[in-house]
Amino acid sequence: MTRTSLDDALWASLMLTMQQIPHAWKRDEAALRRFVEAALWVCRTGAPWRDLPDELGRWPSVYHRFRRWSVRGWWELVFEALRPALPADGLVLLDSTTCKAHRAASGAARSNAEAECLGRSRGGICSKLHACADGAGRILRLVPSPGQHSDLRYAPALASGIPARDAALDRGYVSAKLRAAFAADGCAVHTPPKLGMVDPPPWNQAIYARRRHVENLFSKLKDWGRIALRRDKTRRSWMGFAHLAATLINLRVAEFSHRPYCAGPLLGGGVAALAFRLVGMANTPKVAKAGPSRIRPRA
């Protein structure tokens, strides 16, 4: 995979998932791949739709098709199908990052800033992206919010339905109510206490140190121009780009990781991951075996 295109292994995983989406036009595989790479180009570069190269299609057609996929939730469906079913090492990591909004992001028709997850903080008009990651740095869930909202209010929605044994959170998630809710699901929360906190709860510093994975994850997400600087007026379009980038990040982590990759239930337990590995093996150059040694043993 280059910065703005897909290799055959990544495309095999995406294609197997998209073929199972009902009512999605997918008879022409080459045209479908060109559309996905056009959306990838815009998401990666952060350029306006009008700057789309001609070889990737007409920008009005690509934009309207991307918009339909975002409104119908198909980008999120692809992400959910290819994300890991279980967190690595039973560990979940919750955090958020603030994404500044471009001036073109305001003014959605028949809507308001709160509904489109636009808010104002000390940095200006912005949106916030809350993420749940596992111990291997793979994205399990993404939730948007206005920029001024706190992290704590979105913690239950991020971790809901994800079985975990431990959760590493920063001081923004210090709450006795949240700790009790996680404990009811069999998950221990590891959060450093706030300064001056009376009778702080126990926490494991080694587990908390693994929060570096979610921080590195946000660095990868913000390498995508349309996520670091939001240009989309609607929440659905912006999250369409976010789910596309998250899907490709997860596939790349699975490619370079030795962990077994289990896809979600839509693919029947890892069909796309199997195709991903087979195509990757097919593209791996073969190493010639060494011939017999010419060095004769001593008499």
Task: Name its key features.
299 residues; alpha/beta; Nucleotidyltransferase, domain 5; 2 domains; 7-stranded mixed sheet; 11 helices; 7 strands
Plain-language structure description:
The protein is α/β, with parallel strands linked by helices and 299 residues long. The chain has 2 domains: 8-80 and 258-282, no CATH class; 87-232, Nucleotidyltransferase, domain 5 (2-Layer Sandwich). It contains 11 helices and 7 strands. Strands 1, 2, 3, 4, 5, 6 and 7 form a 7-stranded mixed sheet that branches.
Range of strand content: 5-15%
Instruction: Note the overall shape.
Output: globular
Number of DSSP helices? 11
Rg from alpha-carbon coordinates: 22 Å
The top-level CATH class of the largest domain is Alpha Beta
Poorly predicted regions are 265-299
Order of helices and strands: HHHHEEEEHEHEHHHEHH
Q: What structural class do you assign from the helix and strand content? A: alpha/beta
Distance between the termini: 55 Å
Helix content: 25-40%
Q: CATH architecture of the largest domain, please?
A: 2-Layer Sandwich
Mean pLDDT metric: 86
Biggest β-sheet strands, sense, barrel: 7 strands, mixed
Count of individual domains = 2
Number of distinct beta strands: 7
> Per CATH, what is the topology of the largest domain?
Nucleotidyltransferase, domain 5
Q: What's the helix and strand layout?
A:
Blueprint: H1 8-18, H2 29-45, H3 59-71, H4 74-82, E1 91-101, E2 119-121, E3 124-134, E4 139-146, H5 155-159, E5 166-168, H6 176-184, E6 188-190, H7 205-208, H8 212-221, H9 225-228, E7 229-230, H10 235-255, H11 271-282
Parallel strand pairs: 1-5, 1-7, 5-6
Antiparallel strand pairs: 1-3, 2-3, 3-4
